[in-house]
Design a protein that fits this description.
- It is a single chain.
- Strands 6-7-10-12-11 form a 5-stranded mixed β-barrel.
- The chain has 8 helices and 13 strands.
- The chain has a domain at 21-260.
- The longest helix has 60 residues, at 265-324.
- By secondary structure, the protein is of the alpha+beta class.
- It is 33% helix and 17% strand.
Length: 489
């Protein structure tokens, strides 16, 4: 697992080699951007790297070459060069308002360069150059350094090396993006541009022209020996690297472009990746597969012997011939049957769906005619139908109809109650005879009157009961208080 992760990371690094750069400001008037209107008469630096919008106007300071050295003049001359060994750099896409002030808001890159000729800087062996331990570089001109080979905060007149600490302000969009070339430390570099001066600021302005500043005949700035360090703002117009340049218009023959790879270039890197990366991966896969197959063949020969290998080869040939003849293997036959079964099932479902469509439509139409779950047609038909024992009270329609079985049960109940009726008081018998005989179950009273308790003589054999309507009233009535203790005949 770890080897696979390492391989993926290695391939990703090949893809991203030369394509990554530091985060820096944009060009323009939007948020997190700078825009410089460069002119020798007056240059305006606008910036929004502090959150708000700032604007500073300065006068460029150029160099006029001469036999005794270059003369620095405001609003005149050519670009000044700052040459040496690049030891450290920092890039800004925003600035802290508490630690930054004035023209520093327009700085997009800060560099620390050990002053020396370009050839001497190119001759420095990698690892032998000055090493700076950076702790903080929020203020472009005042980096805070630690215990490296050089501590920029402790430079004085007794130091062995001379240094430039420059706050770089791009004068064009091409220069802005070309400044990312300074992200690679420990290389020779020559930065071309103009120093700045503010009208009426005097000689004590931070990062601006001082009275002791001077240049060589080639207009390369000299470092004052009293401090061995120059902290300056520079309006950058170009950069010279060991194998490329950055120009103000981006049209130099050897123009540096983000993504360039040393020695190969962008086109060479892409070709190398396609040939060496993808081609090598495919070739490695083919070789590894061949080695695995060869090892498997040796193992099989050991297990089944030469005779088994011959039989296996013949079986393979027979299988190829059978397939060419149109025969199917068990797996292919099973797949075909499964496919046919699925198709048949699909056709059957479609046919059933078409067949059930009219019935479903009629059922839906019938359900739409029903109200509240009742079929009105059936209810009206049942209430209007007349028959034996199915009459309803006049002027009233009911959805509850007594059936013939219910009426038969009523008649049987009346016959069973007939003997008891004979012993009831005449008033109760009369009331029972006056009740309507065709009363339905739905019209019966909620509670029947309770039967009075009477005492009877010892029962004798009686004949079959007669209907209550035909029986004569009893000849003699007895009071409840009469003594029935005499059971003689």
């Amino acid at each position: 697992m770890r080897r696979g992760t390492f391989a993926i990371c290695l391939i990703a690094s090949m893809l991203l080699a030369g394509c990554l750069g530091p985060s820096t400001a944009d060009w323009g008037s939007g948020s997190g951007a700078v825009q410089v209107n460069f002119s020798m008469e007056e240059t305006t630096v606008k910036s929004s790297l502090s959150g708000g919008s700032t604007s500073n106007s300065v006068i460029p300071v150029g160099c006029i070459p001469g036999t005794a050295g270059g003369d620095l003049q405001q609003g005149n001359g050519t670009a000044i060069s700052f040459t040496g060994y690049l030891a450290a750099s920092a890039f800004y896409d925003s600035h802290n308002q508490q630690s930054t002030r004035g023209l520093a808001f327009g700085v997009t890159t800060a560099v620390a360069i050990q002053s020396m000729s370009f050839s001497d800087a190119a001759a420095v062996v990698d690892g032998d150059g000055a090493r700076i331990d950076l702790k903080d570089w929020s203020d472009p001109l005042y980096p805070k350094t630690g215990s490296g080979s050089v501590n920029l905060e402790q430079l004085d007149s007794e130091a062995d090396t001379k240094w430039f600490v420059l706050g770089l302000i791009p004068t064009s969009e091409d220069v802005l993006y070309g400044l990312t070339s300074l992200n690679e430390w420990h290389q020779p570099v020559s930065i071309h541009g103009y120093m700045v001066a503010t009208e009426g600021a005097g000689s004590n302005a931070v990062g601006e022209l001082k009275s002791w500043h001077g240049a060589t005949n080639e207009c390369s700035l000299k470092v004052e020996s009293n401090t061995n360090r120059e902290d300056l703002y520079v309006l950058v117009t170009g950069i010279t690297l060991e194998e490329a340049t950055v120009s103000a218009n981006g049209e130099a023959d050897d123009e540096w472009v983000q993504g360039d790879v040393p020695f190969l270039g962008r086109g060479g890197f892409i070709m190398f990746f396609l040939v060496g990366g993808i081609g090598g991966s495919v070739g490695l896969f083919i070789v590894s597969k061949g080695m695995i197959m060869k090892s498997a063949g040796r193992s099989m020969r050991i297990l089944i012997g030469e005779e088994g290998m011959k039989k296996a080869a013949s079986v393979k040939k027979d299988a190829i011939a059978a397939k060419a003849a149109g025969m199917e293997s068990p797996e292919e036959r099973q797949r075909r049957k499964d496919r046919e079964r699925r198709e048949a099932e699909k056709e059957r479902r479609q046919a059933e769906k078409k067949k059930d469509a009219p019935a479903a439509k009629a059922s839906k139409k019938k359900d739409e005619g029903a109200l509240g779950g009742f079929d009105l047609d059936s209810v009206l038909a049942s209430t209007s139908t007349s028959g034996p024992g199915r009459s309803a009270p006049t002027g009233r329609k009911s959805s509850v109809v007594a059936t013939e079985a219910a009426e038969e049960m009523d008649r049987m109940s009346a016959q069973q109650e007939a003997p008891t009726t004979s012993s009831l008081p005449a008033s109760i018998s009369q009331q029972r005879r006056s009740a309507p005989p065709t009363q339905t179950r739905s019209e019966q009273p909620a509670e029947a009157p309770s039967k009075p308790k009477v005492r009877r003589r010892k029962a004798v054999k009686k004949s079959a009961p007669e209907p209550a309507e035909e029986r004569a009233p009893p000849a003699q009535q007895y009071d409840e208080d009469e003594d029935f203790s005499d059971f003689s005949f």
